[in-house]
């Protein structure tokens, strides 16, 4: 892929080069444009890290100051979230409740290598469904209270299950999402119990946190980006940074078996193809071959590219996004769930307008 050809400009190619760790030539680039586009694509902390690390590329002092400020905000926010996560960990561990930290500052430190390279806005923790009521009680006991609807595990028709419950800590002004699965059915690639069987740990500041295995992390974020229809580069960057983690002997047989069992192979390959083509991520020959064999996937990737262009700079219409997701999902159940969710949203809009 030519990253300086339509729909990409030379400046777009430079931003992609930064995110792809390809040391692009910054000569003649308008710094204000770079910051604006980084903000649009929600990758400004990563770009700020690059600017600070490559100050010899003639960045002006004001721009270096801006980069330092962006990194400080990201670091401060993530440290604040870690402090709250430590309270949650203490409550859960003392009660003997098994849990996993997903997304948030732990993911940033583990996969980006630096708490200042990605901004987090809330905390996400995963528990087993049978432990959810206990987790709800423990959160309330440390003054983390439900935000909105009362806690419930009630299932709705057509696979529209509630996979997360929102909480709020007034003391820190932080949202917390308590998950009983990694995603709702149409975007779930790793079953909850499988995630717990393969979980591992990651240490930050002498504290160890339970986390998804590298393979489950990759699959989860691949489907997370798919759920957002790859509307911004931050989703592609997440996949790229996971793939760049040091010392991982990737179990691709396990990844492919899980993707096929959940019938989510095409959505996963979509994210891997974008990470390879846009951010220079190396893929094994087996994965590259599967991408090449999936002809509809080529069209899906091409239609995603305007999301990352400063010229186009637009996401798909709701109808286009719906149709592409419908085309990508492999199981009838997932498609029915997607249709039901679209109908539910449309009805909510009609009733609110009326």
Strand content: 5-15%
The average pLDDT value, as a whole number, equals 87
- Provide the domain count: 1
Level-2 CATH architecture: 2-Layer Sandwich
What is the helix fraction of residues, given as a range?
40-55%
Instruction: Give, in order, the helices and strands.
Output: HHHHEHEHEEEHEEHHHHHHHH
Show unreliable segments: none
Measured between the Cα atoms of the first and last residue, the distance is: 47 Å
Structural class: alpha+beta
Q: Could you say which overall geometry the principal axes of the C-alpha atoms support?
A: globular
For the largest beta-sheet, the strand count, sense and barrel status come to: 5 strands, mixed
Task: Please write the CATH class name.
Answer: Alpha Beta
Give the count of helical stretches.
Answer: 15
Q: What's the gyration radius in Å?
A: 21 Å
Under CATH, the topology is which? Beta Polymerase, domain 2
Q: Got a strand count?
A: 7
Widest β-sheet, arrangement of strands: 1-2-5-4-3
Polypeptide structure, described:
This protein is of the alpha+beta class and 354 residues long. The protein has one domain (10-353): Beta Polymerase, domain 2, CATH 3.30.460.40. It is built from 15 helices and 7 strands. It has helices spanning 10-19, 31-40, 44-53, 61-94, 104-112, 132-141, 192-198, 214-227, 233-243, 252-261, 265-279, 285-293, 295-304, 318-328, 332-353, and strands spanning 100-102, 122-126, 145-146, 164-169, 174-179, 200-204, 207-211. The strands form 2 sheets. It has a 5-stranded mixed β-sheet with strand order 1-2-5-4-3, covered by helices on one side. 40% of the residues are buried.
């Amino acid at each position: 892929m030519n990253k300086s050809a339509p729909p990409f400009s030379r400046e777009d190619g430079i931003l992609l080069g930064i995110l792809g760790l390809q040391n692009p030539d910054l000569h003649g680039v308008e710094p204000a444009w770079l910051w604006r586009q980084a903000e649009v694509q929600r990758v400004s902390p990563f770009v700020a890290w690059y600017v600070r690390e490559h100050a010899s590329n003639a960045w002006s002092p004001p721009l270096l100051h801006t980069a330092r400020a962006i990194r400080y905000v990201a670091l401060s926010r993530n440290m604040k979230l870690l402090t709250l996560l430590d309270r949650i960990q203490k409550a859960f561990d003392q009660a003997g409740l098994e849990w996993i930290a997903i997304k948030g500052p732990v993911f940033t430190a583990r996969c980006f290598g630096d708490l200042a390279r990605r901004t987090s806005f809330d905390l996400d923790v995963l528990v087993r469904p049978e432990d959810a009521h206990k987790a709800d009680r423990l959160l309330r006991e440390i003054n983390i209270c439900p935000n909105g609807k009362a806690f419930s595990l009630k299932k709705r028709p057509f696979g529209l299950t509630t996979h997360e419950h929102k909480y709020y800590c007034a003391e820190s002004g932080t949202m917390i999402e308590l998950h009983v699965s990694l995603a709702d059915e149409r975007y779930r690639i790793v079953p909850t119990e499988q995630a717990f069987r393969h979980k591992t740990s990651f240490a930050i500041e002498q504290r160890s946190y339970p986390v998804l295995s590298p393979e489950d992390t990759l699959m989860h974020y691949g489907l997370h980006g798919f759920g957002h229809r790859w509307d911004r580069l931050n989703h592609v960057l997440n996949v790229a940074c996971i793939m760049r983690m040091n010392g991982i002997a990737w179990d691709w047989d396990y990844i492919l078996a899980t993707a096929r069992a959940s019938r989510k192979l095409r959505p996963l390959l979509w994210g891997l193809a974008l990470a390879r083509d846009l951010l220079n991520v190396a893929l094994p020959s087996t994965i590259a071959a599967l991408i090449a064999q999936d002809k509809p996937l080529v069209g899906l990737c091409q239609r995603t590219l305007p999301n990352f262009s400063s010229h186009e700079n637009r996401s798909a219409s709701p109808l286009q996004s719906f149709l592409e997701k419908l085309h990508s999902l492999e199981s009838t159940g997932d498609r029915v769930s997607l249709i039901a969710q679209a109908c539910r949203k449309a009805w909510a809009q009609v009733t609110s307008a009326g």
